[in-house]
Specification:
This protein has about 210 residues and is α/β, with parallel strands linked by helices. It is built from 6 helices and 7 strands; from the N terminus they run H-H-E-E-H-E-E-H-E-H-H-E-E. Helix 4 packs across helix 6 (about 165-180).
Length: about 210
Amino acid sequence: MTQPDYALPSEYFERDDESADELFYIAPRLVNHIDERALAAATELYRRLLPPSGAILDLMSSWVSHLPPERRYERVVGLGMNEAELRANQVLTERVVQNLNREPQLPFEDATFDGCVCTVSVQYLTDPVVVFAEVGRVLKHGAPVVTTFSNRMFPTKAVAIWTALDDQGHINLVAEYYRRAGCFTAITAYDAGSGRRGDPLYGVAARRVP
Protein backbone atom coordinates (compact mmCIF):
# COMPACT_ATOMS: atom_id res chain seq x y z
CA MET A 1 0.00 0.00 0.00
CA THR A 2 1.38 3.41 -0.96
CA GLN A 3 1.43 6.37 1.39
CA PRO A 4 -1.24 9.06 0.93
CA ASP A 5 -0.17 12.03 -1.21
CA TYR A 6 -2.04 15.08 0.05
CA ALA A 7 -0.12 17.58 -2.08
CA LEU A 8 -2.94 19.16 -4.05
CA PRO A 9 -2.85 22.98 -4.08
CA SER A 10 -4.76 24.44 -1.14
CA GLU A 11 -6.44 27.00 -3.39
CA TYR A 12 -8.28 24.13 -5.11
CA PHE A 13 -10.33 23.74 -1.95
CA GLU A 14 -11.25 27.31 -1.24
CA ARG A 15 -14.95 28.22 -1.31
CA ASP A 16 -16.96 31.36 -1.92
CA ASP A 17 -18.63 30.86 1.46
CA GLU A 18 -16.03 30.05 4.11
CA SER A 19 -18.42 30.55 7.02
CA ALA A 20 -18.95 27.63 9.39
CA ASP A 21 -20.56 24.68 7.60
CA GLU A 22 -22.67 24.04 10.69
CA LEU A 23 -24.47 27.32 10.04
CA PHE A 24 -25.16 26.50 6.39
CA TYR A 25 -26.58 23.09 7.24
CA ILE A 26 -28.39 24.06 10.44
CA ALA A 27 -31.83 23.88 8.80
CA PRO A 28 -32.83 20.39 7.64
CA ARG A 29 -33.37 20.01 3.90
CA LEU A 30 -35.75 17.08 3.49
CA VAL A 31 -35.65 17.28 -0.29
CA ASN A 32 -33.82 15.44 -3.07
CA HIS A 33 -31.03 17.43 -4.68
CA ILE A 34 -31.11 15.58 -8.01
CA ASP A 35 -34.07 14.18 -9.91
CA GLU A 36 -35.70 10.81 -9.33
CA ARG A 37 -34.15 9.13 -12.37
CA ALA A 38 -30.66 10.14 -11.32
CA LEU A 39 -31.31 8.87 -7.80
CA ALA A 40 -32.60 5.59 -9.22
CA ALA A 41 -29.38 5.33 -11.24
CA ALA A 42 -27.38 5.80 -8.03
CA THR A 43 -29.36 3.05 -6.33
CA GLU A 44 -28.81 0.70 -9.26
CA LEU A 45 -25.07 1.38 -9.14
CA TYR A 46 -25.05 0.59 -5.42
CA ARG A 47 -27.01 -2.58 -6.14
CA ARG A 48 -24.37 -3.68 -8.63
CA LEU A 49 -21.29 -2.81 -6.62
CA LEU A 50 -22.09 -3.20 -2.92
CA PRO A 51 -22.27 -6.56 -1.13
CA PRO A 52 -25.82 -7.82 -0.43
CA SER A 53 -25.32 -7.80 3.33
CA GLY A 54 -22.93 -6.66 6.04
CA ALA A 55 -22.10 -3.21 7.41
CA ILE A 56 -22.37 -0.12 5.17
CA LEU A 57 -21.09 3.40 5.82
CA ASP A 58 -23.25 6.13 4.27
CA LEU A 59 -20.81 9.03 4.21
CA MET A 60 -22.15 12.61 4.15
CA SER A 61 -25.57 11.09 4.68
CA SER A 62 -28.94 12.80 4.73
CA TRP A 63 -32.60 11.85 5.15
CA VAL A 64 -32.45 9.18 2.41
CA SER A 65 -29.59 6.75 1.80
CA HIS A 66 -30.53 5.51 -1.72
CA LEU A 67 -29.39 1.99 -0.91
CA PRO A 68 -31.25 -0.87 -2.63
CA PRO A 69 -34.53 -1.16 -0.68
CA GLU A 70 -34.67 -4.97 -0.97
CA ARG A 71 -31.32 -5.37 0.80
CA ARG A 72 -31.25 -6.01 4.54
CA TYR A 73 -27.92 -4.83 5.79
CA GLU A 74 -26.93 -5.77 9.31
CA ARG A 75 -25.70 -2.23 9.96
CA VAL A 76 -26.01 1.08 8.09
CA VAL A 77 -24.16 3.97 9.69
CA GLY A 78 -25.01 7.45 8.46
CA LEU A 79 -22.48 10.23 9.03
CA GLY A 80 -23.78 13.66 8.12
CA MET A 81 -24.11 17.30 9.08
CA ASN A 82 -27.72 17.61 10.17
CA GLU A 83 -29.17 15.61 13.06
CA ALA A 84 -32.80 16.06 11.99
CA GLU A 85 -32.05 14.74 8.51
CA LEU A 86 -30.26 11.71 9.93
CA ARG A 87 -33.14 11.01 12.34
CA ALA A 88 -35.55 11.06 9.38
CA ASN A 89 -33.53 8.38 7.57
CA GLN A 90 -35.21 5.10 8.50
CA VAL A 91 -32.58 2.95 6.80
CA LEU A 92 -29.88 3.97 9.26
CA THR A 93 -29.14 1.83 12.27
CA GLU A 94 -26.65 4.37 13.66
CA ARG A 95 -26.24 8.11 13.21
CA VAL A 96 -23.16 10.30 13.61
CA VAL A 97 -23.25 14.09 13.29
CA GLN A 98 -19.83 15.28 12.13
CA ASN A 99 -18.37 18.00 9.94
CA LEU A 100 -15.71 16.26 7.85
CA ASN A 101 -14.23 19.59 6.82
CA ARG A 102 -13.50 20.35 10.46
CA GLU A 103 -12.80 16.79 11.61
CA PRO A 104 -11.88 14.47 8.71
CA GLN A 105 -10.93 11.51 10.91
CA LEU A 106 -13.72 8.94 11.06
CA PRO A 107 -14.83 7.72 14.52
CA PHE A 108 -14.69 4.01 13.65
CA GLU A 109 -12.26 1.17 14.18
CA ASP A 110 -10.06 -0.14 11.37
CA ALA A 111 -11.65 -2.63 8.94
CA THR A 112 -15.19 -2.08 10.24
CA PHE A 113 -17.30 -1.79 7.08
CA ASP A 114 -18.14 -4.07 4.14
CA GLY A 115 -18.88 -1.11 1.86
CA CYS A 116 -19.22 2.68 1.71
CA VAL A 117 -21.23 5.13 -0.36
CA CYS A 118 -21.04 8.90 -0.73
CA THR A 119 -24.01 10.33 -2.63
CA VAL A 120 -23.87 13.74 -4.39
CA SER A 121 -21.75 15.37 -1.66
CA VAL A 122 -18.10 14.86 -2.56
CA GLN A 123 -17.94 18.37 -4.06
CA TYR A 124 -18.08 19.90 -0.58
CA LEU A 125 -15.01 18.20 0.92
CA THR A 126 -12.12 20.55 1.64
CA ASP A 127 -9.75 17.73 2.67
CA PRO A 128 -10.95 14.98 0.34
CA VAL A 129 -7.77 12.90 0.20
CA VAL A 130 -7.63 12.75 4.00
CA VAL A 131 -11.27 11.66 4.10
CA PHE A 132 -10.76 9.05 1.36
CA ALA A 133 -7.75 7.68 3.23
CA GLU A 134 -9.93 7.42 6.33
CA VAL A 135 -12.58 5.58 4.34
CA GLY A 136 -9.88 3.15 3.28
CA ARG A 137 -8.86 2.66 6.89
CA VAL A 138 -12.37 1.76 8.09
CA LEU A 139 -13.19 -0.53 5.14
CA LYS A 140 -12.43 -4.23 5.27
CA HIS A 141 -9.79 -5.38 2.82
CA GLY A 142 -11.31 -5.75 -0.64
CA ALA A 143 -14.49 -3.85 0.29
CA PRO A 144 -16.00 -1.42 -2.24
CA VAL A 145 -16.59 2.30 -1.98
CA VAL A 146 -18.84 4.13 -4.46
CA THR A 147 -18.90 7.92 -4.88
CA THR A 148 -21.77 9.27 -6.98
CA PHE A 149 -22.32 12.82 -8.17
CA SER A 150 -24.20 14.94 -10.69
CA ASN A 151 -23.76 18.49 -11.94
CA ARG A 152 -25.91 19.98 -9.19
CA MET A 153 -24.39 21.68 -6.15
CA PHE A 154 -24.65 24.49 -3.65
CA PRO A 155 -22.11 26.63 -5.55
CA THR A 156 -21.01 28.78 -2.61
CA LYS A 157 -20.06 25.67 -0.59
CA ALA A 158 -18.53 23.60 -3.41
CA VAL A 159 -14.74 23.77 -3.58
CA ALA A 160 -13.11 25.87 -6.27
CA ILE A 161 -11.67 23.00 -8.28
CA TRP A 162 -15.10 21.36 -8.54
CA THR A 163 -16.82 24.49 -9.80
CA ALA A 164 -14.05 25.00 -12.39
CA LEU A 165 -14.39 21.52 -13.95
CA ASP A 166 -16.89 19.88 -16.29
CA ASP A 167 -18.42 16.43 -15.78
CA GLN A 168 -15.40 14.56 -17.13
CA GLY A 169 -13.18 16.71 -14.97
CA HIS A 170 -15.24 15.73 -11.92
CA ILE A 171 -14.79 12.05 -12.77
CA ASN A 172 -11.04 12.49 -13.13
CA LEU A 173 -10.83 14.48 -9.90
CA VAL A 174 -12.64 11.88 -7.79
CA ALA A 175 -10.46 9.14 -9.29
CA GLU A 176 -7.44 11.23 -8.30
CA TYR A 177 -8.71 11.41 -4.71
CA TYR A 178 -8.79 7.62 -4.62
CA ARG A 179 -5.30 7.36 -6.08
CA ARG A 180 -3.79 9.87 -3.69
CA ALA A 181 -5.41 8.19 -0.67
CA GLY A 182 -3.02 5.32 -1.35
CA CYS A 183 -5.25 2.46 -0.23
CA PHE A 184 -7.52 1.68 -3.20
CA THR A 185 -7.36 -0.46 -6.30
CA ALA A 186 -9.67 -1.14 -9.27
CA ILE A 187 -10.67 2.53 -9.59
CA THR A 188 -13.49 2.57 -12.14
CA ALA A 189 -15.69 5.36 -13.52
CA TYR A 190 -19.36 4.92 -14.42
CA ASP A 191 -21.65 7.06 -16.55
CA ALA A 192 -24.97 5.99 -15.07
CA GLY A 193 -27.36 8.36 -16.77
CA SER A 194 -25.99 11.28 -18.79
CA GLY A 195 -27.57 10.03 -22.02
CA ARG A 196 -31.14 10.73 -20.94
CA ARG A 197 -33.15 13.80 -20.06
CA GLY A 198 -32.78 15.22 -16.60
CA ASP A 199 -29.85 15.27 -14.23
CA PRO A 200 -26.79 13.21 -15.14
CA LEU A 201 -25.40 10.68 -12.68
CA TYR A 202 -21.77 9.62 -12.52
CA GLY A 203 -19.93 7.32 -10.19
CA VAL A 204 -16.36 6.46 -9.37
CA ALA A 205 -15.85 3.25 -7.44
CA ALA A 206 -12.85 1.46 -6.01
CA ARG A 207 -11.94 -1.34 -3.65
CA ARG A 208 -9.85 -1.26 -0.52
CA VAL A 209 -6.51 -2.84 -1.27
CA PRO A 210 -6.78 -6.53 -0.24
